[in-house]
Design a protein that fits this description.
Number of domains: 2
CATH topology of the largest domain: Jelly Rolls
Largest sheet: 7 strands, antiparallel
Number of helices: 8
Radius of gyration: 24 Å
Order of helices and strands: EHEEHEEEHEHEHEEEEHEEEEHEEHEEEE
CATH superfamily of the largest domain: Alpha-ketoglutarate-dependent dioxygenase AlkB-like
Strand content: 25-35%
């Protein structure tokens, strides 16, 4: 959902504004946004009521004019409001931030479709699974133990991915992929209509849970670890995935975790919006030669709309473990000896 962004209230009521920051008020204390709008509409035309943060107990009430906001503040601040369950409200003025202060300065134009990026081998299908299937998948992984990393939680199936070596131990098989992902695997062959070479015989799954604001460092999945098709299913929350291709191989491998990338001839940046229930395929050039990266943001700008990330995003990444050396057409990005 695209929402305006407001500055934190600053002491006192001396700075008039048409926007009010209202504490002890919101869904977490049993008040709907519609009921709040109705109560504050007694003092003027309300443009909108927005969550002030993720707590659910503070909102922004935005009026058409400053005089209406001033009237509401004088009438309701630190007084019980019978129209809102007799709650005592705490109100201050708040000022909407300009977009230049809201949107991350390192953002890049974001595509909604993979075809807009024009990266060979990258495909995206929206609504790949249903909302009911999404709920079932989340319930299934939440019923199983998570492994804690520094900023996110993971689960591995089929084979465990070892982050210290960026590879898998093919001698340590965990078993078959779990039965609860059958609804996903049954639909994967549809990608062969987009890419005839897409591999659909998958034997490794990594489930990642990203809290709000947590992303993924730039990287290319190790060539020697996995075959050419990598599928990533996004659940619960949206995110932006950025792709980077360096003309200087050292920039890609010597500093592969660096999050700095300029728009010079050394680095090309493109990005795509991944909504919940969408499935992304990385194959060919997009898999072997482009880094992919999830910026560490809580909000993103998508086609002039501010998108706020959810409290969590869960990704299901399906791959096929490679049993021999990689023979790709991108040796400058490949770790397999030729």
């Amino acid at each position: 959902m695209g929402l305006p962004k407001f500055t934190r209230p600053k002491g006192g009521h001396e700075e008039l504004s048409s926007n009010l920051y209202v504490a002890n008020c919101g869904p977490a204390v049993g008040l709907t946004l519609d009921s709040i709008e109705s109560a504050f509409s007694l003092y003027g035309t309300v443009k909108g009521v927005y969550p002030a943060d993720e707590s659910g107990c503070r909102v922004i009430v935005s009026y058409d004019d400053e005089s209406s906001a001033q009237t509401a503040l004088k009438a309701l601040d630190r007084k019980t409001c019978s129209d809102l369950g007799g709650r005592s409200l705490h109100i201050r003025y708040s000022v909407q931030r300009p977009l230049s202060q809201v949107v991350p300065t390192d953002s890049v134009q974001v595509s909604l479709e993979a075809s807009e990026m024009n990266i060979p081998g990258v495909y995206l299908i929206h609504d790949f699974i249903s909302a009911q299937e999404e709920e079932q998948l989340l319930a299934a992984v939440d019923a199983r133990p998570w492994h804690n990393l520094a900023k996110r939680r993971v689960q591995h199936y089929g084979y465990e991915f070892c982050y210290n070596i960026r590879n898998v131990d093919t001698q340590q098989r965990l078993g078959e992929l779990p039965s609860f992902v059958a609804c996903v695997l049954d639909k994967v062959p549809v990608f062969q209509k987009l890419d005839e070479a897409a591999d659909v015989s998958l034997d490794q799954l990594t489930v990642n849970e990203y809290p709000s604001g947590v992303g993924l460092s730039p990287h290319i999945d190790t060539h020697s670890a996995f075959e050419g098709s990598i599928y990533s299913l996004s659940l619960s929350g949206p995110c932006i995935m950025e792709f980077r291709r360096y003309s200087n191989t050292n920039a890609c491998f010597g500093d592969r975790d660096a999050e700095s990338c300029d728009n010079s001839s050394n680095c090309i940046r493109k990005a795509i919006y991944l909504p919940p229930r969408s499935m992304l395929l990385l194959s060919g050039e997009g898999r072997y030669a482009w880094q992919h990266y999830i910026p560490h943001h809580k909000i993103d700008m998508v086609k002039d709309t501010i998108i706020r990330r959810g409290s969590r995003r869960v990704s299901f990444t399906f791959r096929k473990v490679r049993k021999g050396p990689c023979q790709c057409d991108y040796p400058q990005f490949c770790d397999s000896p030729r």
